[in-house]
What we know:
Elements: H1 2-31, E1 42-45, E2 52-61, E3 66-74, E4 92-99, E5 102-108, E6 110-112, E7 126-132, E8 142-149, E9 153-160, E10 165-172
Amino acid sequence: xxxxxxxxxxxxxxxxxxxxxxxxxxxxxxxxxxxxxxxxxxxxxxxxxxxxxxxxxxxxxxxxxxxxxxxxxxxxxxxxxxxxxxxxxxxxxxxxxxxxxxxxxxxxxxxxxxxxxxxxxxxxxxxxxxxxxxxxxxxxxxxxxxxxxxxxxxxxxxxxxxxxxxxxxxxxxxxx
Length: 176
């Protein structure tokens, strides 16, 4: 009888620890900086959504990298297009290198893009950001922006949830 009790206790402990580590891995993959920078190709993420608004875009110099943060809100509707409440998750997005100094970004599931691009007067890496409104190419819930850099860069993109944010960390591509 003691053998079975020990066996049941052992299985319970292993199962509890496995679930604890599995959840921790999932959180670190979804919510935290990884240190995986790219300088070619594209990065995409987010969830299929509709009715979102990119309300704010923030820039910061973090000494060894620069950061862009896109704050995602729920769209306020046609009579009040500016988002009122932060959303819990972001819609789909794609960051694609066009050259080593230019990235095209597409956002899908967004009915509004009320954010104004920040001024990059103190940035060593980011030159400017342009919001592209092309009615022919984009659907009614799609927006595109272009980020232009002063020199070749590498980027890392990750998401944060509740409230939703898309975070882009930018470093100089010294090998480029």
